[in-house]
């Protein structure tokens, strides 16, 4: 059985200075009312995204010729960690910055990069992802959406589920079959960049258990997609999308979703100290520290040009367990009745988080899928 390497991240005085700068920005934004905490990477606030774009905090690692800033993966990590810890509303640019930019840098055409990346880095272009489908679950290789080659491009027909912020995005990257049959599994899949202004697209809202609307069902009915919107190589979509998923799974967003609950738990235990409270808080913080170290190691792997697919799956799996556990631990520790919208801040936050928690082990790949990736990486299957 092989072992997994998690390299030691290289911290510098510049990283500390950047963290101080980001915290000062967030404190100022909170003071002047331009930052209303809540929602984090699921909350859509274009004005806030544009402010981050102006400061160079979107597309940080991308080349300057595409609107990026040639900064390191660890510098980017510092910024997104501080944004998530503050529950800053970064949802407008989040997916485009985390996944679509790296995808286009790796596989996109020069025209695609020149057209989209500067706008994404400015916080002015938002992109959704079309992976999951009805009846397919987490088996992406079984997607049924099909793009038939026609003169000048493709005709796309199919349905995508759980498309975060599709109703607010300019584009969607769709994984679909462009050749072969469904039984071909990984062969014949491609990624298309689809403009939401194209005729034949219907977006239906999916309201989650918290009552919020970030998910959607998107239907494509013979939507024409020009050849120029094919990302990478036709038929190579499976390899491309698995690399893209590594970016989705390894960041601090995979263990900080319940951070607001932890902060309120700490404050409550400070007001009313107890041995049990210290024990619960200590265990959560210890787990969080380990996850953060592993996640930082993945940022270091990216900096070194290494493949973090297996390590990212591990961080995402273990992180989702902790994220789901924190609100339940708060409920048990304080014997509170979770109630979204309650005047009691902890009760309200725990209530909202308990409703959202089931999605933590679904988004970015279910637990079973992730553990299969880890097992293969360890040579156990």
Features:
four-stranded mixed sheet; 3 domains; globular; Butyryl-CoA Dehydrogenase, subunit A, domain 2; four-stranded antiparallel sheet; single chain; Butyryl-CoA Dehydrogenase, subunit A, domain 3; alpha+beta; Butyryl-Coa Dehydrogenase, subunit A, domain 1
Entry summary:
The protein is of the alpha+beta class and 381 residues long. It is built from 11 helices and 8 strands.
What can you see in these coordinates?
The chain is an alpha+beta fold and 381 residues long. It has 3 domains: 13-125, Acyl-CoA dehydrogenase/oxidase, N-terminal domain (Butyryl-Coa Dehydrogenase, subunit A, domain 1, Orthogonal Bundle); 129-235, Butyryl-CoA Dehydrogenase, subunit A, domain 2; 250-377, Up-down Bundle (Butyryl-CoA Dehydrogenase, subunit A, domain 3). The protein contains 11 helices and 8 strands. It has helices at 13-31, 46-54, 73-85, 94-107, 110-121, 237-249, 259-271, 275-303, 309-334, 345-356, 367-377; strands spanning 127-130, 146-150, 153-160, 171-177, 189-195, 201-207, 213-226, 230-231. The strands form 2 sheets. A 4-stranded mixed beta sheet has the order 1-4-5-8, with helices on one face. Strands 2-3-7-6 form a 4-stranded antiparallel beta sheet, with no helix packed on it. Strand 2 (146-150) and strand 3 form a beta hairpin. The protein is globular, with a radius of gyration of 21 Å.
């Amino acid at each position: 059985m092989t072992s997994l390497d998690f390299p030691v991240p290289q911290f510098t005085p510049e990283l500390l200075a950047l963290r101080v700068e980001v915290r000062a920005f967030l404190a100022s934004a909170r003071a002047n009312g331009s930052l209303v905490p809540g929602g984090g990477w699921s909350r859509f606030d274009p004005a806030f995204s544009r402010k981050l774009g102006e400061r160079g905090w979107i597309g940080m690692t991308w080349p300057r010729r595409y609107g990026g800033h040639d900064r390191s993966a660890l510098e980017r990590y510092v910024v997104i960690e501080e944004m998530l810890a503050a529950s800053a509303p970064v949802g407008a640019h989040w997916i485009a910055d985390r996944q679509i930019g790296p995808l286009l840098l790796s596989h996109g055409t020069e025209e695609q990069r020149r057209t989209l990346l500067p706008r994404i880095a400015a916080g002015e272009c938002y992109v959704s992802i079309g992976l999951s489908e009805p009846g397919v679950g987490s088996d992406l290789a079984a997607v049924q959406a099909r793009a038939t080659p026609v003169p000048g491009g493709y005709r796309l027909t199919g349905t995508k589920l759980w498309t975060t912020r599709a109703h607010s995005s300019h584009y969607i990257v769709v994984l679909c079959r462009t050749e072969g049959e469904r039984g071909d599994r990984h062969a014949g899949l491609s990624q298309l960049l689809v403009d939401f202004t194209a005729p034949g697209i219907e977006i239906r809202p999916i309201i989650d258990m918290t009552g919020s609307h970030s998910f959607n069902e998107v239907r494509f009915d013979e939507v024409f997609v020009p050849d120029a919107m094919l990302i990478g190589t036709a038929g190579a979509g499976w390899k491309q999308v698995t690399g893209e998923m590594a970016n989705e799974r390894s960041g601090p967003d995979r263990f900080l979703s319940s951070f607001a609950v932890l902060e309120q738990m700490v404050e409550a235990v400070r007001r009313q100290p107890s041995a049990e409270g210290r024990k619960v808080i200590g265990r959560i913080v210890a787990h969080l520290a380990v996850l953060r170290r592993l996640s930082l190691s993945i940022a270091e792997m990216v900096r070194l040009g290494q493949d973090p697919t297996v390590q990212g799956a591990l961080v995402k799996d273990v992180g989702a367990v902790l994220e789901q556990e924190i609100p339940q631990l708060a409920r048990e520790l304080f014997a509170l009745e979770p109630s979204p919208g309650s005047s009691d801040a902890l009760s309200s936050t725990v209530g909202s988080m308990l409703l959202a928690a089931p999605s933590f082990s679904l988004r970015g790949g279910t637990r079973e899928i992730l553990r299969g990736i880890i097992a293969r990486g360890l040579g156990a299957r």
